[in-house]
Design brief:
It is a single chain. This protein is an alpha/beta fold and about 625 residues long. Among the domains are: about 200 residues, 3-Layer(aba) Sandwich (Rossmann fold); about 100 residues, Alpha Horseshoe (Serine Threonine Protein Phosphatase 5, Tetratricopeptide repeat), CATH 1.25.40. The chain contains 25 helices and 15 strands. Strands 2-1-3-4-5-6-7 form a seven-stranded mixed beta sheet, with helices on both faces. Strands 8-11-12-13-14-15 form a six-stranded parallel beta sheet. Helix 13 packs parallel to helix 14. The termini are far apart.
Length: about 625
């Protein structure tokens, strides 16, 4: 029997389509929520996986969907985190071929016997329809089985809605947040009466029709405690990491995530948060969130958290109340947390920094993005070089935090080298602990993402270019300028992808290694070393990370450990003519020939390298 409907709250086309699916599949009330692998198989590195260097985030979005469905009669749900299952299998079973990962999905399907499967995840915006892309491969496998009603969502899918539907990779796509949409869809499939109104973020059928309804922002109520019965959250640290911050506090420290706010006040042109989340901020209920964090700490043994918020400081009073609420967990259990997504600089205050200090914050990123005022205006970034510098001065008073600035080069595929130099110079002037340079990618262009990426660069890669290759080593065109040679480029040059890679490598080495403030007198070498040793887990073939971890150890007075890193650097250089030549071009070869014996020799050796560059590397 079709459900009883109210014409004011439904789209008859959607109801009819779901009725066709109901007749074809005769679905039972069993729903499997799937998170595919969070990495690309074309660039998989098994050594890094076994060193626990790949991302392993709990499936928070799927947990919220499960909570949204928990009040429906007799709906049985189960979460399948394929990313976790695959990482665990590859770590435990070295004979398991990564390309057989879909066997793990089949095992879950056979065990749970769902009728409806929802797939959502976040991956690099590469060829979204490639046979090896984890989301496309998951959807294709489910559709070819011919036994399931397949729904898809998440940031990656939302950027190519029409393509997924017209390619026959799913029956329904939910664009943006899914709690209201999934409830409506399942009511239309299973209930005798539909009580929830249709929302316009539902797309359906091979014609990619859009449901007609009234848009409603999702208001997060309650917490995720009940959903954690499905999630072996204590095991995630044994399979991977959240980011370098979670590795800094110790790879064996059990971790989880929390989210105080959904959405972001800003509407930056390069960012996909506003198109996916909608405008405005929705703040979670404070007490339920604190109960969730306490549950994770006291009952599940979690000791480190990552703030998932895109705008953690959106409501300063609520943020302060949340931080005050977790102070006892810091005092009693020694919890730590970080905010790698980045904080909006104009919301950072001494009062909030004091609370962050009291709650065990180990570090955070801040969004700078560009040093060119023209590019900042074009991207609608809330800030100027002057306001960023003001915040950087304030942050110098809190040296225990490891603070990084986020920067983008190659903006919109049109940024000139002169504009990129302004970004580099601003990074040097701010003098933070780290400068995370990334290469621009489209993340907010629904319906034509693949074509846009193809037009810009011939193919899509990771924001961090070294992650696009299994070896984590850039492929180099030796005819292009690198290192000091780059600064002779005409400022009106608009670099192509290969030259952007060289600019990225040069800016990264100069700002973060050769000119890092923590390898200068008065710096904190131990903080630098903890970070480098954390990120090196993901880059086992990178010799400059070894060299600089060794230099940092020498500055700390631990030359024995420094020599171990130095030996690893020499081994890698001996195995790679490309890296040996790069060391020559960057002026690092002298530090390898005569490895410094003490902090004074490290300082002078790095200063000698810096003198070979035209632009200053400190303000």
């Amino acid at each position: 029997m079709p459900p009883e409907v109210d014409s004011r709250t439904v789209d008859s086309r959607l109801i009819n389509y779901l009725g066709e699916l109901r007749q074809r599949y005769a679905p039972q009330r069993r729903l499997l929520l799937v998170q595919p692998p969070q990495f690309l198989f074309d660039a998989v590195n098994l050594e890094v996986i076994r060193r626990r260097g790949y991302y392993a985030y709990p499936p928070t979005g799927l947990q919220w969907l499960e909570i949204a469905l928990s009040e429906m009669n007799d709906i049985q749900t189960e979460i399948c985190d394929l990313n976790l299952l695959l990482l665990q299998r590859l770590i435990d079973d070295h004979a398991f071929p990564p390309e057989d990962w879909l066997n793990l999905l089949e095992q879950q399907l056979e065990q749970f016997q769902p009728s409806v499967v929802c797939v959502t995840g976040l991956t690099v915006y590469a060829d979204l329809f490639s046979p090896t892309h984890p989301i496309a491969a998951t959807l294709r496998y489910l559709m070819e089985a011919g036994r399931y009603i397949v729904m898809a969502g998440g940031p990656t899918v939302s950027n190519e809605i029409t393509g997924y539907l017209k390619s026959g990779l799913c029956h329904v796509v939910v664009d943006g947040e899914g709690e209201y949409a999934i409830r409506h869809l399942l009511e239309a499939l299973f209930e005798e009466r539909i009580t929830t109104p249709v929302v316009p973020n539902i797309y359906f059928s091979a014609d990619a029709l859009k449901a007609e309804g009234t848009s409603r922002p999702v208001i997060p109520l309650g917490n995720l405690v009940k959903s954690y019965s499905d999630i072996p959250v204590e095991q995630y640290c044994r399979a991977g990491c959240l980011n370098p911050y979670s590795r800094m506090v110790g790879q064996d420290s059990p971790y989880a995530v929390f989210q105080l706010n959904r959405g972001c006040r800003c509407n930056c042109a390069f960012c996909g948060v506003r198109p996916f989340m909608g405008s405005g901020i929705r703040t979670c209920q404070l007490q339920p969130l604190l109960e969730e964090v306490r549950y994770l700490v006291e009952e599940r043994g979690i000791r480190h958290f990552e703030a998932l918020d895109d705008d953690f400081l959106a409501n300063p009073e609520t943020t302060a109340a949340f931080l005050k609420g977790i102070i006892p967990l810091r005092e009693d259990f020694g919890i730590t947390w970080a905010a790698n997504n980045g904080l909006i600089t104009n919301a950072i205050t001494p009062e909030l920094l004091e609370l962050m200090r009291a709650t065990g914050c180990v570090g955070f990123k801040i969004g700078i993005e560009a040093g060119s005022t023209e590019m900042l205006r074009r991207m609608k970034k809330p800030g100027t070089p002057a306001t960023f510098k003001k915040i950087a001065v304030l942050l110098q008073q809190y040296p225990e935090f490891f603070v990084g600035g986020n920067y983008i080069i190659g903006l919109f595929g049109e940024e000139t080298f002169g504009q990129m130099l302004a970004t580099y110079q601003l990074a040097i002037d701010l003098d933070l602990d780290w400068s995370t340079f990334s290469i621009f990618q489209v993340t907010n262009n629904p319906g034509s993402l693949s074509e846009k990426l193809q037009a810009m660069s011939g193919s899509a890669t990771d924001f961090i270019p070294t992650k696009s290759i299994a070896s984590r080593n850039l492929q180099e065109d030796s005819s292009l300028p690198l290192g000091a040679e780059l600064f002779g480029l005409p400022h009106n040059t608009v670099p192509g992808r290969d030259l952007l890679n060289n600019i990225w490598l040069t800016f990264n080495l100069l700002a973060n290694y050769i000119g890092n403030k923590n390898l200068k007198p008065g710096g904190d070498a131990s903080k630098f070393v903890r970070w480098i040793e954390a990120i090196r887990i993901s880059y086992p073939e990178n010799p400059y990370m070894c060299l600089f971890a060794g230099l940092g150890r020498v500055v700390m007075g631990d030359r024995e450990r420094g020599l171990e890193h130095y030996a690893a650097c020499c081994t890698l250089l001996g195995q790679s003519e490309v890296w040996s030549q790069r060391f020559e071009r960057f002026g690092l070869h002298e530090l390898v020939k005569i490895f410094p014996r003490n902090d004074v020799e490290v300082y002078s050796g790095l200063e000698d390298v810096l003198e070979t560059y035209t632009l200053p590397v400190s303000s």
